[in-house]
Design a protein that fits this description.
The complex is a heterodimer of chains A (216) and B (262). Chain A is of the alpha/beta class. Helix content of chain A is 31%, strand content 31%. Chain A has a 6-stranded mixed sheet with strand order 6-7-8-3-9-10, sandwiched between helices. In chain A, strand 9 and strand 10 form a beta hairpin. The longest helix of chain A is centred in the C-terminal third of the chain and has 15 residues. Chain A is globular and about 45 Å long. Chain B folds into 2 domains: 56 residues, no CATH class; 182 residues, Up-down Bundle (Multidrug efflux transporter AcrB transmembrane fold), CATH 1.20.1640. The longest helix of chain B has 33 residues. The termini of chain B are far apart. The chains are: A alpha/beta (216), B mainly alpha (262).
């Protein structure tokens, strides 16, 4: 495995007096998909949110490419560490409008390429985003995240509510993403079969701590 | 003047309050005491204000008294906004800044461009129109922005996660909040004269002023209201939106307490 793209070093995080993460240490190596697994409430989503600084740790360090993310401009960090949420979040307007939020200067060809990466047709650019099916919306959101040119992708159970075809498209897009330029993905999933299909390794959380690590 | 109302005339108009009280009794609304109390209280308040205004806008007195009156109105409006939005922490200084900004803009234009002469009799009523009409819209804008922090949290975070700066992440939702606050006044402005005759113009016509002169004054008043609403809602929305984010561009929920009216 290559050097880690992301690292968490003894990270603690609490909300409303309740400690959610109790000293998490893990690494997300380049060129691989790391699956983050564990029961609901074990702190998986929090780990993702700490990686692109939607949250900040109470103590410990989160590093991206060896540098403490606290030292990055949040806007730069988030373009380098993209995120796909569990529920798709389409913005108002067309698919083109949505993609241009991530890449304001991109032409239609570039936007069509982005859609192709998630197995959506270029003809969808003019469609209203709030009329897409759940699977189409989630794939559009993934294309939107990829348009910022991230080196790392954070995926928070993005396929948990999708049909098989959409799930396969998302999995293929992420596999293609990590296959180039030493990119990496950290994928939260409850689905052992999915971890087996997409993951190179898994990290299990339990009660806010790393409980186990191993092959996916 | 033709439109002068004598004390006898005022007493006669109390017949209309009697009509309202009678209808309340007829319909068993149990609002008779409240109606009578409201009518009496309004009269006392207006007489007191009229007496005080007489002192303030007397041409022989310095105009600084009128400025002090306007400043008091601005401060009181901010207090009213805070009272109506207890769920929003720190709204008082923001509302104070917003109304002050609106006063600077509207009164600056009116007196700077010599639309009206700068006198107590012009300054006080115009400041009153500016402040009084902007309060409700300011409350609406403030509430909508705070609701953004919860209702639109997922969308705003998704925009942040794409690397947008917080100002850009919230911009479309902020615009929607200000639009919501402004549209009723824009509709009112469009309908004026067609659907209803507004207060200032009606008052002037009743007082015997030529209707065309009354129209000119009313048009200026409408523009004052529009300008002040746009200013206060924008300042409050921008000010509150900054509190939705930490300095390092994370979204934080504003502390909300239960709505006492709920």
């Amino acid at each position: 495995m290559s050097a880690p793209r992301l690292e968490l070093d003894d990270v603690r995080w609490s909300r409303s007096g309740r400690e959610i993460l109790r000293g998490v240490t893990l690494a997300v190596p380049a060129g691989a998909v790391t699956c983050l697994r564990g029961a609901s409430g074990s702190g998986k989503s929090t780990v993702l949110r700490l990686c692109n600084r939607l949250e900040v740790p109470d103590s410990g360090v989160v590093r991206c490419d060896g540098a403490d993310v606290a030292g990055w401009a949040a806007t730069d960090l988030r373009r380098r560490v993209g995120m796909a949420f569990q529920q798709p979040v389409p913005f108002a307007g067309t698919v083109r409008d949505n993609l241009r939020v991530a890449a304001p200067d991109a032409g239609d060809d570039a936007l069509a390429d982005a859609l192709e990466r998630v197995a959506l047709p270029a003809s969808m650019l003019g469609a209203e985003a709030d009329r897409l099916s759940g699977g189409e919306a989630q794939r559009m959101c993934l294309a939107r995240a990829l348009l910022t040119g991230p080196a790392v992708l954070l995926l928070d159970e993005p396929t948990s509510a999708l049909d098989e075809a959409s799930r396969d498209a998302v999995e293929a897009a992420v596999a293609a993403f990590v296959a180039r330029d030493d990119r990496a993905a950290l994928w939260v999933t409850h689905d052992a079969a999915q971890a087996g299909r997409v993951g190179d390794r898994s990290v299990w959380l339990r009660d806010g701590r790393v409980h186990d690590r191993g092959p996916a | 003047m033709n439109g002068d109302v004598t004390w006898v005339g005022l007493a006669a108009s109390l017949a209309l309050v009697a009509v309202a009280v009678a209808l309340s009794r007829l319909m068993a609304l149990r609002l008779e005491r409240e109606m009578a109390w409201a009518a009496a209280r309004a009269l006392v308040q207006l007489v007191l204000v009229g007496w005080a205004l007489g002192l303030v806008i007397d041409p022989s007195r310095p105009v600084v008294l009128a400025w002090a009156w306007a400043a008091a109105m601005v401060a009181y409006a901010a207090v009213v906004v805070r009272r109506r939005t207890p769920e929003i922490p720190g709204i008082l200084p923001l509302a104070l800044v917003a109304f002050t900004a609106a006063a600077v803009v509207t009164l600056g234009v009116l007196f700077g461009l010599r639309v009206f002469p700068l006198e107590g009799r012009t300054l006080v009523p115009l400041a009153g129109m500016m402040v009084g009409n902007a309060m409700s819209a300011t409350v609406v804008a403030a509430r909508r922005v705070v609701e953004l922090g919860t209702d639109r949290r997922r969308e705003i975070e998704a925009r942040l996660a794409l690397g947008l700066a917080s100002r850009r992440a919230i911009r479309p939702y902020l615009a929607a909040a200000v639009r919501t606050a402004l549209i009723p006044q824009i509709e009112t402005t469009k309908a004026v004269g067609l659907v209803f005759l507004p207060g200032a113009m009606t008052g002037l016509i009743l007082a015997g002023v030529d209707p065309l002169d009354a129209v000119l004054v009313q048009a200026v008043v409408m523009y004052v209201v529009l300008g002040s609403l746009a200013t206060t809602t924008t300042v409050v929305a921008l000010g509150l939106s900054r509190r939705l984010f930490t300095p390092d561009q994370r979204l934080v929920p504003l502390t909300r307490v239960a709505d006492p009216a709920a």
